Amino acid sequence: MEGFNMAGSDPKAVQLADSVMAAQGGRESWDNTRYIAWNFFGNRKLLWDKASGNVRVEHLKDDMKVLVNINTGEGKVYKDGAEVTQPDSVAKYLQQGKEAWINDSYWLVMPYKLKDSGVTLKYLGEDTTQAGQQAEVLQLTFEKVGVTPENRYKVYIDKGTHLVSQWAYFKNANDTAPAFVMPWQDYQTYGNLKLSGDRGQAKITDIKVMDEVPETAFTSFEPVNL
C-alpha cells in the first residue's frame, strides 16, 4: 500500500510478506473481494463492503447496531429499540463502530495487511511456535496509523505453507514480553481467499466472502440474511 515503509523494512521481511499474500490467494484476489462477513468472538457481527467502505456492526450482547462508512465517518446508529438522533451520541457511536471494525477486521485479515501504510517490517529469523511448528518470524511496527500505533506484533509464518501460524501482541513496541500469543489455525477457503478464524481459546465464526449482499444491509436496521 502507499505509505508502506519500504526503505525501513528488511528485504527478507518484504519477501516473506509477499509469500504470505500469495499463499492466501494473492493480491488480486484480495483487491477483487467485495464483501466479508464474520462473527467476532460472539461479541459482534460485522459486514464490510471493501469497495465503498460501508460497515455494518451488530452488537450481540446488547441492543445496538451501527451502520458506518469507515472512509467518511458518516452513518447512523440504532440502540435500545430506537434510532439515536442526538448528534454527540451518534458521533460517539459511529467512532466506536469504526474502531470495532479496525480491531475485528485485523484479527481476521491481518495477513493481507502486512504491507499496509505506516507499517515497517523486520525479519527476526526462525523460531518454533507454541504448537511446535517451524516458522520464520516477522516484526510489525506502526507509525501514525490505526487507533493504537504504539503496538508491535511478531508474526510467525509457517515454513511449509507460508501461512501465518501464530502471532504475538505487544501493547507497547518496547515491551519485552507479549501481552498474548495466539495461533492462527484451521484455514478455510472463502471465495478466493484463505482465512483462519481459530485463535485457540477464541474463535471467529460465520465467516463469509460474497459478491452480493442485500442493498438494505448498510441502510436499514432490519435483520440481514446473507
Descriptive tags:
single chain, 226 residues, alpha+beta, outer membrane lipoprotein receptor (LolB), chain A, seven-stranded antiparallel beta sheet, five-stranded antiparallel beta sheet, 3 helices, 14 strands
- Name of the CATH first level: Mainly Beta
Strand content: 35-45%
Which sheet architecture does the biggest sheet show? 7 strands, antiparallel
| Strand line-up across the major sheet | 6-5-4-3-2-1-14
Terminal CA distance reads 30 Å
What is the helix content? Answer: 10-25%
Assign the structural class, choosing from mainly alpha, mainly beta, alpha/beta, alpha+beta, or little secondary structure.
alpha+beta
Overall domain count: 1
Element-level helix/strand string: HHEEEEEEHEEEEEEEE
Residue runs with pLDDT of under 50 for 5 or more positions: none
CATH architecture type:
Clam
